[in-house]
Every structure is written in C-alpha cells, then in structure tokens.
Design a protein that fits this description.
By secondary structure, this protein is mainly α. It has one domain (2-115). Helices cover 53% and strands 10% of the residues. The protein has helices at residues 2-6, 9-26, 34-39, 43-48, 51-64, 104-115; strands spanning 70-72, 79-81, 84-86, 91-93. Strands 1-4 form a two-stranded antiparallel sheet. Strands 2-3 form a two-stranded antiparallel sheet. A hairpin with a 2-residue loop joins strand 2 and strand 3. Helix 5 (51-64) runs antiparallel to helix 6.
C-alpha cells in the first residue's frame, strides 16, 4: 500500500492530512511518540474517520489481485525479457491493462467521490 500511496503525491498528501487530523483530534500531545499517539486512537475512529486510508488499502488489494506484480531478479546475472533487460537485483513491475480497464487515477477519483 505504501508503494502505491508514495507514487502519487496528490493522494499521499490527502491521506497524510486525514491521518494528521485524526491524530490531532485524539492524541494532540506531540511530545508523545507517534506509536503512543496511534495507540490512543479508538477503534471506532480507525473504522469511521479514515476513509481514505481504508480506500487505499482496498485499492492496493484490488491492484494485487492478479498475483504478484513485482518480481525481483535474484540471479547473479541480468535477465532479458523481450526487448527489456532486468539487471541483477532489480525489480520488474508487471502491468496487465485488461485487468485494470479504467486508468487508476480516474478510478480513484470515482471511488473517493463516493466516500466523501
């Protein structure tokens, strides 16, 4: 989930703002560690006041349903796949356009609009 959120600055900032708002509401003492502050958030707030975080989790699961989409070349040599070369130690990302018929950003906007 963090890889998907981190790759889109717009949604990263929205999710961060929502989390910061919940933290400030239930655990405003910033001298506490972040872990301690998170522990003070009641379960009801996790379930009802973080719809973007819930959406990101659900959408990450949706994106992963097709199987592992990241593969690491753990061999000691480069691997050629078609016209591409995957260096030793590098990750390859698979994308299946038929699996995601609507572009991710458009789909995100549609689902987020329903949440808010």
């Amino acid at each position: 989930m963090l890889a998907y959120i981190g790759s889109n600055r717009y949604w990263f900032e929205r999710v961060r703002d929502q989390i910061d708002g919940v933290l400030d509401k239930y655990a405003p003492d910033q001298s506490m560690s972040l872990t301690q502050r998170f522990e003070l958030i009641p379960i009801e707030a996790w379930e009802t006041e973080l719809p973007l975080l819930d959406y990101c989790l659900r959408d990450s699961i949706r994106l992963q349903l097709g199987g592992t989409m990241y593969r690491r070349n753990i061999s000691s040599s480069d691997v050629k796949i078609g016209n591409e070369v995957i260096p030793s130690g590098a990750f390859a990302v698979c994308y299946f356009p038929s699996f995601l018929p609507i572009p991710i950003d458009v789909r995100s906007l549609i689902l987020i609009a329903k949440l808010l």
